[in-house]
Specification:
Layout lengths: L1 H27 L19 E6 L2 E8 L2 E5 L3 E2 L2 H12 L3 E6 L15 E7 L2 E11 L5 E6 L5 E5 L3 H4 L3 H4 L3 E4 L6 E6 L2 E7 L8 H8 L11 E3 L4 E2 L1 H12 E3 L2 E2 L4 H4 L4 E6 L3 E10 L2 E6 L6 E4 H7 L3 H6 L3
């Protein structure tokens, strides 16, 4: 009996030892691969980026300090290109997601993947297939060139590359970084020539506020007036200048300025140099417009067009 119990004890110890060893080896063997290390790429090294999806290819090329979309030569959205370069030059793989070639599950099959290639001149620096976001939405499934495995890449960045030409174009159509001194507004046969007047004569703000029982206004703010000295609404003019000084469009259209005919409204803004803006007809809830800073006509929302298209009578009736 004692011999049987001794055998049972030995057997139990052996079983426990075998299980412990199995668990140890299983844990240590969970990661039995080494993650590939993407090449070190400096942002200044990348001179061309190609994006392919579903048989369509978009090419971005560095042109001095700007990026352009080929073959048309459209200006690319600098912020969009910057996000791409941050991923290309800072790509970090965090784990292997799959060793199988079931790419469709990860949107890495031919129909859904976004194939990104970065070049320095004609030399390929990186080729990356971009799939869908991981369930955590903090990683993206990717596949490297000549590697059948699927990896987790840090950050959710598919949307950075999964864009068409329209989404990648620079939508800035008018940018004025200097003070506007004069504005000529034209609507049909009517026009209004407005300029910044001298600042009002300075008074003692403390005395003025004490007499009025209110806070003193900004006495140094310049006012707007017509060329013959009539006061113009400062609020309306400041709003107009602010809108046109940093204007972005919704999209571009193929028609030329010649095709569009005469504008229904225009604004000629004078600073260190002249800037021009034009409004044409309406189209499906948007307004066709143009500017001296854009070779192409573009669309802006109707609400923005109404904000720009000032009524001359209202401008003159309101005191600046």
């Amino acid at each position: 009996m004692r011999m049987d119990r001794k055998k049972e004890t030995i057997l139990l110890v052996l079983i426990i030892g075998a299980l412990a060893a199995y668990l140890v080896f299983r844990r240590t063997g969970e990661i039995h691969y080494q993650l590939p290390k993407p090449p070190a790429i400096g942002k200044e090294d990348v001179t061309r980026i190609t994006i392919e999806k579903g048989g369509a290819t978009i090419t971005l090329k560095r042109d001095g300090d700007r990026w352009r979309i080929l073959p048309e030569g459209y200006r690319a959205d600098e912020a969009a290109v910057k996000r791409m370069l941050e991923i290309i030059c800072g790509l970090r793989l965090t784990a292997m997601a799959s060793e199988s070639a079931n790419y469709a599950v990860y949107d890495l099959d031919d129909a859904h993947r976004v194939e990104v290639s970065a070049f320095k001149g004609d030399r390929l620096l990186l080729k990356l297939d971009v799939g869908k976001a991981a369930p955590s939405h903090r990683h993206t499934f990717v596949k490297l060139r000549d590697d059948k495995h699927i990896y987790h890449a840090e950050k959710n960045f598919r949307s950075y590359f999964d864009k068409d030409v329209s989404a990648l174009r620079d939508k800035q159509v008018l940018k004025i970084d200097e003070e506007i001194s004069e504005v000529i507004l034209t609507a049909g046969k009517e026009s209004l020539h407005v300029r910044r007047g001298a600042a009002p004569a300075e008074v003692n703000p403390h005395q003025a506020s004490a007499e009025a029982g209110e806070e003193a206004p900004d006495q140094k703010a310049p006012r707007w007036e017509t060329v013959d000295g009539k006061p113009v609404s400062g609020k309306e003019m400041d709003d107009l200048v602010k809108t046109l000084s940093d204007l972005k469009c919704d999209d571009y259209i193929k028609e030329t300025k010649k095709d569009a005919g005469n504008p229904t409204f225009s604004a000629d803004l004078k600073a260190g140099r002249n800037y021009e803006f034009f409004l044409y007809g309406e189209r499906e809830g948007k307004t066709v417009a143009g500017s001296s800073e854009s070779d192409d006509l573009f669309l802006i929302p109707d609400w923005k067009a109404k904000r720009i298209r000032k009524n001359f009578k209202d401008l003159l009736e309101k005191k600046g």
